[in-house]
Design a protein that fits this description.
alpha+beta, Aminopeptidase, five-stranded antiparallel β-sheet, three-stranded antiparallel β-sheet, 5 helices
Length: about 230
């Protein structure tokens, strides 16, 4: 459980409509703003981070995370499922984080750009993964990854549920998609446990190759409660 599925950004810094985070000045909970995209206005309600769940602290990226994320990206599971997310050295990781940090202020909306958060394990304050959102066509996709030695304890599900609920409340999304390799059984199980519904499989270019992927979706009306 919790093997990486597609993370919503790439290391080349070339963000596209998903083929492609130090601090956002967060207004108090309940404050509202407007995100704009192709003439459409979207409600944005900036609910404070970090997200504090039973086992996790989910927060924005800072440059000091570079070394931890470098180590994480070179784990076997990351290299297998997220080859586009493998950093060659700490400088490479810092460059990627500088880009992601900039996305907190511009565009500051996952309908328009990546919004990636890191996951800390509360018991030992270790950075164990990341969860993030980014645009895909007219939707928003969630991606996630958990370090190998922390897998098998439901932490991926806990992060997905918390981040999804926060995104629905903050950005007024109608639904959130998640796309993973059809062969990534652990990620698919995590998504189902987080109450994402399987929408079907298809062949598309994914992590640099044409392959079969499984598409999942969670609607705002059916989103689970944190800790459920």
């Amino acid at each position: 459980m919790g093997e990486p599925n597609r993370a919503p950004y790439n290391n080349s810094m070339q963000l596209t409509a998903l083929r492609a985070q130090l601090m956002l000045s967060v207004r108090p909970q309940g404050a509202h703003g407007t995100g704009r995209m192709t003439g459409t206005e979207y409600p944005v309600s900036f609910n404070p981070l970090p997200l504090d769940t039973r086992s996790l602290l989910i927060r924005q990226v800072v440059l000091d995370d570079a070394r931890d994320l470098l180590v994480l990206s070179n784990e076997q599971m990351f290299r297998a499922w997220l080859p586009s997310q493998v950093y060659s050295d700490e400088s490479h990781a810092r460059s990627a984080l500088e880009f992601l940090i900039g996305q907190y202020s511009t565009p500051a909306n996952p309908r328009q750009g990546a919004y990636v958060l890191v996951i800390e394990h509360k018991a030992d304050r270790t950075l164990i993964g990341h969860v993030g959102l980014s645009p895909i066509d007219d939707d928003v996709e969630i991606g996630f990854a958990i370090a190998q030695r922390y897998q098998g304890h439901g932490l991926a599900v806990e992060a997905i549920v918390a981040a999804s609920r926060w995104a629905f409340e903050t950005f007024g999304l109608d639904r959130i998609l998640s796309i993973t390799s059809s062969a990534n059984i652990a990620s698919k199980r995590a998504l189902v446990r987080a109450e994402f519904a399987h929408q079907g499989d298809k062949v598309m270019r994914f992590q640099g190759t044409e392959q079969s992927v499984s598409v999942y979706a969670l609607s705002a009306l059916s989103g689970p409660e944190v800790g459920a």
